[in-house]
Amino acid sequence: MNISERRACRALGQHRSTQRKVPRGRDDEEALTADLVALAEKYGRYGYRKISALLKAAGWFVNDKRVERIWRREGLKVPAKQPKRGRIWDNDGSCVRLRPEHRNHVWSYDFVEARTHDGRKIRMLNVVDEFTHECLAIRVARKLKATDVIDVLSDLFIVRGVPGHIRSDNGPEFVAKALQAWITGVGAKSAYITPGSPWENGYVESFNARLRDELLNGEIFYTLREAQVVIESWRRHYNGVRPHASLGYRPPAPEVFMPAFSAWPAALARPAPPAKLPVAERPTVH
Protein backbone atom coordinates (compact mmCIF):
# COMPACT_ATOMS: atom_id res chain seq x y z
CA MET A 1 0.00 0.00 0.00
CA ASN A 2 1.30 3.39 -0.96
CA ILE A 3 0.50 5.14 2.34
CA SER A 4 2.64 7.30 4.58
CA GLU A 5 3.91 6.10 7.95
CA ARG A 6 2.30 9.08 9.68
CA ARG A 7 -1.15 8.30 8.25
CA ALA A 8 -0.89 4.58 8.98
CA CYS A 9 0.10 5.16 12.59
CA ARG A 10 -2.71 7.67 13.03
CA ALA A 11 -5.23 5.18 11.67
CA LEU A 12 -3.98 2.43 13.98
CA GLY A 13 -3.68 4.71 17.00
CA GLN A 14 0.00 3.82 17.29
CA HIS A 15 2.88 6.15 18.09
CA ARG A 16 5.37 6.61 15.25
CA SER A 17 8.35 5.91 17.54
CA THR A 18 7.30 2.26 17.69
CA GLN A 19 8.35 1.94 14.04
CA ARG A 20 11.89 3.11 14.72
CA LYS A 21 12.92 1.74 18.13
CA VAL A 22 13.40 -2.00 18.36
CA PRO A 23 12.30 -3.21 21.82
CA ARG A 24 14.91 -5.16 23.71
CA GLY A 25 15.33 -6.38 27.26
CA ARG A 26 18.08 -5.46 29.67
CA ASP A 27 21.58 -6.65 28.90
CA ASP A 28 21.79 -8.63 32.16
CA GLU A 29 18.33 -10.23 31.92
CA GLU A 30 19.62 -13.61 30.76
CA ALA A 31 22.36 -13.80 33.40
CA LEU A 32 19.97 -12.71 36.15
CA THR A 33 17.41 -15.29 35.06
CA ALA A 34 20.05 -18.01 35.05
CA ASP A 35 21.21 -17.11 38.56
CA LEU A 36 17.64 -16.91 39.83
CA VAL A 37 16.76 -20.33 38.40
CA ALA A 38 19.96 -21.81 39.81
CA LEU A 39 19.09 -20.46 43.27
CA ALA A 40 15.51 -21.73 43.00
CA GLU A 41 16.83 -25.19 42.15
CA LYS A 42 19.35 -25.14 44.98
CA TYR A 43 16.98 -23.78 47.63
CA GLY A 44 13.74 -25.37 46.53
CA ARG A 45 11.69 -24.20 49.52
CA TYR A 46 12.57 -20.49 49.24
CA GLY A 47 10.16 -17.94 47.80
CA TYR A 48 11.13 -15.08 45.51
CA ARG A 49 11.78 -12.70 48.42
CA LYS A 50 14.44 -14.96 49.95
CA ILE A 51 15.86 -15.59 46.48
CA SER A 52 16.01 -11.82 45.96
CA ALA A 53 17.93 -11.42 49.21
CA LEU A 54 20.41 -14.11 48.12
CA LEU A 55 20.87 -12.44 44.75
CA LYS A 56 21.66 -9.14 46.45
CA ALA A 57 24.13 -10.91 48.75
CA ALA A 58 25.80 -12.37 45.66
CA GLY A 59 26.32 -8.89 44.15
CA TRP A 60 23.20 -8.25 42.07
CA PHE A 61 21.61 -4.78 42.19
CA VAL A 62 18.01 -5.81 41.71
CA ASN A 63 14.68 -5.05 43.37
CA ASP A 64 12.06 -7.55 44.52
CA LYS A 65 9.57 -6.60 41.81
CA ARG A 66 11.96 -7.53 39.02
CA VAL A 67 12.79 -10.81 40.74
CA GLU A 68 9.08 -11.55 41.14
CA ARG A 69 8.43 -10.83 37.45
CA ILE A 70 11.16 -13.24 36.36
CA TRP A 71 10.04 -15.75 39.00
CA ARG A 72 6.50 -15.84 37.60
CA ARG A 73 7.66 -15.79 33.99
CA GLU A 74 9.77 -18.89 34.62
CA GLY A 75 6.81 -20.64 36.25
CA LEU A 76 8.47 -21.04 39.64
CA LYS A 77 6.20 -21.88 42.55
CA VAL A 78 6.12 -19.85 45.76
CA PRO A 79 5.94 -22.12 48.87
CA ALA A 80 2.73 -21.91 50.85
CA LYS A 81 2.80 -19.44 53.73
CA GLN A 82 2.59 -20.65 57.29
CA PRO A 83 -0.91 -20.04 58.72
CA LYS A 84 -1.20 -17.38 61.40
CA ARG A 85 -1.77 -18.42 64.99
CA GLY A 86 -3.56 -16.50 67.70
CA ARG A 87 -2.12 -15.22 70.95
CA ILE A 88 -2.04 -17.34 74.07
CA TRP A 89 -4.54 -16.35 76.75
CA ASP A 90 -5.15 -17.49 80.29
CA ASN A 91 -8.62 -18.31 81.62
CA ASP A 92 -9.02 -14.81 83.02
CA GLY A 93 -8.29 -13.22 79.64
CA SER A 94 -4.73 -12.09 80.38
CA CYS A 95 -1.92 -12.79 77.94
CA VAL A 96 0.62 -15.10 79.60
CA ARG A 97 3.18 -15.60 76.86
CA LEU A 98 6.79 -14.95 77.81
CA ARG A 99 8.22 -12.83 75.02
CA PRO A 100 11.97 -12.40 74.43
CA GLU A 101 13.22 -8.86 74.91
CA HIS A 102 16.94 -9.16 74.21
CA ARG A 103 19.67 -11.61 73.32
CA ASN A 104 20.00 -14.47 75.84
CA HIS A 105 16.67 -13.56 77.43
CA VAL A 106 14.71 -16.65 76.35
CA TRP A 107 16.10 -19.82 74.82
CA SER A 108 13.89 -22.69 73.71
CA TYR A 109 14.72 -26.29 72.94
CA ASP A 110 12.97 -29.34 71.60
CA PHE A 111 13.59 -32.76 70.06
CA VAL A 112 13.18 -33.79 66.43
CA GLU A 113 13.39 -37.36 65.18
CA ALA A 114 14.46 -38.82 61.85
CA ARG A 115 15.88 -42.12 60.58
CA THR A 116 18.94 -43.27 58.76
CA HIS A 117 18.67 -45.38 55.61
CA ASP A 118 18.72 -48.62 57.61
CA GLY A 119 15.60 -47.56 59.52
CA ARG A 120 17.34 -46.79 62.81
CA LYS A 121 16.14 -43.71 64.67
CA ILE A 122 18.21 -40.59 65.27
CA ARG A 123 17.27 -37.74 67.60
CA MET A 124 18.15 -34.06 67.36
CA LEU A 125 18.15 -31.62 70.26
CA ASN A 126 17.61 -28.13 68.83
CA VAL A 127 18.39 -25.02 70.89
CA VAL A 128 17.22 -21.61 69.62
CA ASP A 129 17.65 -18.05 70.91
CA GLU A 130 14.12 -16.67 70.52
CA PHE A 131 15.18 -13.03 70.24
CA THR A 132 17.88 -13.39 67.54
CA HIS A 133 16.32 -16.53 65.95
CA GLU A 134 19.79 -18.06 65.92
CA CYS A 135 20.08 -21.83 66.21
CA LEU A 136 22.62 -22.22 69.00
CA ALA A 137 23.12 -25.97 68.71
CA ILE A 138 21.81 -29.18 67.17
CA ARG A 139 22.98 -32.31 69.00
CA VAL A 140 22.49 -35.42 66.84
CA ALA A 141 22.65 -38.89 68.37
CA ARG A 142 20.86 -42.22 68.47
CA LYS A 143 19.60 -41.53 71.99
CA LEU A 144 19.43 -38.32 73.99
CA LYS A 145 18.66 -38.20 77.71
CA ALA A 146 18.54 -35.54 80.41
CA THR A 147 22.30 -35.86 80.95
CA ASP A 148 22.84 -35.09 77.24
CA VAL A 149 20.63 -32.00 77.56
CA ILE A 150 22.78 -30.81 80.48
CA ASP A 151 25.93 -31.47 78.44
CA VAL A 152 24.67 -29.37 75.50
CA LEU A 153 23.49 -26.51 77.72
CA SER A 154 26.68 -26.43 79.76
CA ASP A 155 28.76 -25.97 76.61
CA LEU A 156 26.47 -23.16 75.45
CA PHE A 157 26.48 -21.45 78.84
CA ILE A 158 30.28 -21.35 78.84
CA VAL A 159 30.45 -19.80 75.38
CA ARG A 160 27.36 -17.56 75.38
CA GLY A 161 26.46 -16.98 79.01
CA VAL A 162 23.45 -18.07 81.03
CA PRO A 163 20.03 -17.11 79.58
CA GLY A 164 17.22 -15.73 81.68
CA HIS A 165 14.71 -18.44 80.75
CA ILE A 166 14.72 -21.75 78.92
CA ARG A 167 11.40 -22.70 77.33
CA SER A 168 10.41 -26.31 76.59
CA ASP A 169 7.56 -28.75 76.55
CA ASN A 170 6.94 -31.27 79.33
CA GLY A 171 8.95 -34.13 77.88
CA PRO A 172 10.60 -36.49 80.38
CA GLU A 173 14.09 -35.25 79.47
CA PHE A 174 13.12 -31.62 80.22
CA VAL A 175 11.21 -32.18 83.47
CA ALA A 176 13.83 -34.48 84.96
CA LYS A 177 14.75 -33.42 88.49
CA ALA A 178 18.46 -33.49 87.72
CA LEU A 179 18.00 -31.05 84.82
CA GLN A 180 15.70 -28.74 86.79
CA ALA A 181 18.12 -28.63 89.72
CA TRP A 182 21.05 -27.92 87.42
CA ILE A 183 19.26 -25.08 85.55
CA THR A 184 18.23 -23.48 88.84
CA GLY A 185 21.76 -23.87 90.19
CA VAL A 186 23.35 -21.92 87.33
CA GLY A 187 20.84 -19.06 87.68
CA ALA A 188 18.41 -19.69 84.82
CA LYS A 189 14.67 -20.37 84.99
CA SER A 190 12.62 -23.09 83.31
CA ALA A 191 9.52 -22.02 81.37
CA TYR A 192 7.30 -24.99 80.59
CA ILE A 193 4.44 -24.72 78.12
CA THR A 194 0.93 -26.00 78.82
CA PRO A 195 0.73 -29.76 78.11
CA GLY A 196 -0.64 -30.42 74.64
CA SER A 197 -0.02 -26.84 73.46
CA PRO A 198 3.06 -26.90 71.17
CA TRP A 199 2.14 -23.48 69.71
CA GLU A 200 3.27 -21.94 73.00
CA ASN A 201 6.79 -22.96 72.01
CA GLY A 202 6.38 -21.39 68.60
CA TYR A 203 9.97 -20.28 67.94
CA VAL A 204 11.57 -23.69 68.18
CA GLU A 205 8.54 -25.38 66.57
CA SER A 206 8.94 -23.05 63.60
CA PHE A 207 12.64 -23.87 63.46
CA ASN A 208 11.85 -27.59 63.58
CA ALA A 209 9.49 -27.15 60.64
CA ARG A 210 12.18 -25.35 58.61
CA LEU A 211 14.72 -28.05 59.46
CA ARG A 212 12.41 -30.82 58.35
CA ASP A 213 11.11 -29.02 55.27
CA GLU A 214 14.42 -27.70 53.93
CA LEU A 215 16.73 -30.55 54.93
CA LEU A 216 15.37 -33.74 56.50
CA ASN A 217 12.63 -34.34 53.93
CA GLY A 218 15.16 -34.19 51.09
CA GLU A 219 18.15 -36.08 52.54
CA ILE A 220 18.98 -39.76 52.94
CA PHE A 221 21.42 -40.35 55.79
CA TYR A 222 23.34 -43.62 55.54
CA THR A 223 25.23 -43.24 58.81
CA LEU A 224 24.91 -41.28 62.04
CA ARG A 225 28.18 -39.47 61.32
CA GLU A 226 26.91 -38.35 57.92
CA ALA A 227 23.76 -36.97 59.55
CA GLN A 228 25.84 -35.06 62.13
CA VAL A 229 28.05 -33.44 59.48
CA VAL A 230 25.24 -32.51 57.07
CA ILE A 231 22.93 -31.17 59.80
CA GLU A 232 25.70 -29.07 61.35
CA SER A 233 26.53 -27.65 57.92
CA TRP A 234 22.87 -26.74 57.43
CA ARG A 235 22.79 -25.10 60.91
CA ARG A 236 25.70 -22.86 59.95
CA HIS A 237 23.97 -21.97 56.69
CA TYR A 238 20.75 -21.22 58.59
CA ASN A 239 22.56 -18.84 60.95
CA GLY A 240 24.96 -17.16 58.55
CA VAL A 241 23.41 -17.15 55.08
CA ARG A 242 19.70 -18.05 54.98
CA PRO A 243 17.50 -14.91 54.74
CA HIS A 244 14.87 -14.66 57.49
CA ALA A 245 11.67 -12.80 56.61
CA SER A 246 11.11 -11.71 60.23
CA LEU A 247 14.60 -10.14 60.29
CA GLY A 248 14.17 -8.11 57.11
CA TYR A 249 15.56 -10.93 54.95
CA ARG A 250 18.87 -10.97 56.78
CA PRO A 251 20.49 -13.98 58.47
CA PRO A 252 20.35 -14.02 62.29
CA ALA A 253 24.10 -14.35 62.88
CA PRO A 254 26.27 -13.57 59.83
CA GLU A 255 29.89 -14.16 60.79
CA VAL A 256 31.58 -12.61 57.75
CA PHE A 257 30.51 -11.39 54.33
CA MET A 258 30.56 -14.28 51.91
CA PRO A 259 28.93 -15.17 48.59
CA ALA A 260 25.55 -16.70 49.24
CA PHE A 261 26.45 -20.08 47.77
CA SER A 262 29.65 -20.86 49.65
CA ALA A 263 28.14 -22.02 52.95
CA TRP A 264 25.73 -24.79 51.96
CA PRO A 265 26.28 -27.57 51.36
CA ALA A 266 29.67 -27.91 53.00
CA ALA A 267 30.47 -30.87 50.78
CA LEU A 268 31.10 -28.45 47.90
CA ALA A 269 34.74 -27.80 48.80
CA ARG A 270 35.72 -25.24 46.20
CA PRO A 271 37.13 -21.68 46.13
CA ALA A 272 34.65 -18.90 46.85
CA PRO A 273 32.88 -17.82 43.62
CA PRO A 274 32.87 -14.22 42.36
CA ALA A 275 30.08 -11.80 43.15
CA LYS A 276 27.77 -13.44 40.63
CA LEU A 277 27.23 -17.08 39.85
CA PRO A 278 29.95 -18.62 37.67
CA VAL A 279 28.85 -19.30 34.11
CA ALA A 280 29.40 -23.03 34.62
CA GLU A 281 26.73 -23.14 37.33
CA ARG A 282 24.08 -21.36 35.30
CA PRO A 283 21.49 -23.63 33.69
CA THR A 284 20.58 -23.01 30.08
CA VAL A 285 17.67 -20.55 29.84
CA HIS A 286 15.41 -20.86 26.81
UniProtKB/TrEMBL annotation:
This protein's name: IS3 family transposase ISMex5
Pfam family membership, one: HTH_21
PANTHER family on file: BLR2054 PROTEIN (PTHR47515:SF1), LOW CALCIUM RESPONSE LOCUS PROTEIN T (PTHR47515)
Domain Integrase catalytic: 96-259
Organism: Methylobacterium cerastii
